[in-house]
Amino acid sequence: NAGVTQTPKFQVLKTGQSMTLQCAQDMNHNSMYWYRQDPGMGLRLIYYSASEGTTDKGEVPNGYNVSRLNKREFSLRLESAAPSQTSVYFCASSGLTSGRGISTDTQYFGPGTRLTVL
Amino acid sequence: AQSVAQPEDQVNVAEGNPLTVKCTYSVSGNPYLFWYVQYPNRGLQFLLKYITGDNLVKGSYGFEAEFNKSQTSFHLKKPSALVSDSALYFCAVRDPATGGFKTIFGAGTRLFVKA
User: Which residues contact B53 (CB under 8 A, 6 or more apart)?
Assistant: First the structure.
């Protein structure tokens, strides 16, 4: 199993350009997440998808959109990139969900996409 | 609102010595707590978690953490550090009472183990 895969690994954009970050998992997990990692700030949740067909905003959703294409794939789109979106982006997935609809399982992370916006 | 604090940006220990990486949290209910490790140019890897039960949790690579409800802490420990333990460590909390799928991460603590 490949786990969680992300493409591309690196990307340089000019301000105003658009792009889509791709993420796929082969662990049959219900939930998927997009985070950004900035120095000294840890990981911040951008969007998540609790299950196929649903998406919800996280802490920092402005400037981003997501699509849960199917159970395996969860993409993140930047419609008009800004220098403030320069960051490392991580996709993650998780599996088990308790009877109360709360995910208790660990998250499995992809290798990340390093994005620079000039 | 839930939050996580890792008060030390960096922890330096000598190989063979015990190590502690500190974490405190704030949630309204009973927390789910996690530790993850990140090696250079890699994604985060799960180390251990506390959901319920025994306050002392054992995880991967000889790490353990103790849940202390009165002090709202979840410090990561290892009895004998290895040079290969050098990495960035993240504490994370999920509050099932307010948002079961939203995990809040601390800013991270860089562990440096000297040979």
Answer: none
* Ramachandran angles phi, psi of B101, nearest 5°: -105, 0
Does a cis peptide bond (omega within 30 degrees of 0) precede residue A8?
A: yes
What pLDDT digit, counting tens, does each position of A48-98 carry?
A: 998 898 999 998 999 999 999 899 999 999 999 999 999 999 999 998 665
Which among A45, A108, A111 has CB closest to B103?
Answer: A45
Q: Write out the two tokens for A39.
A: 């120095």
Q: Which of B37, B11, B16, B8 is nearest to B82 (CA)?
A: B16
Q: Which residue among B102, B107, B108 sits closest to A45, beta carbon to beta carbon?
A: B102
Which residue's entry shows tokens 């040979």? B115
**Residue A86 neighbours by CB distance under 10 Å:** 16
Q: Which of A29, A33, A52, A102 to mutate to test the interface with B (most CBs of B within 10 A)?
A: A102
> With an 8 Å Cβ cutoff, are A107 and B44 in contact?
yes
Instruction: Report the distance separating Cα B64 and Cα B78, nearest Å.
Output: 6
Residue B101 DSSP code: T
Closest to B47 measured CA to CA, from B6, B7, B1, B90:
B90
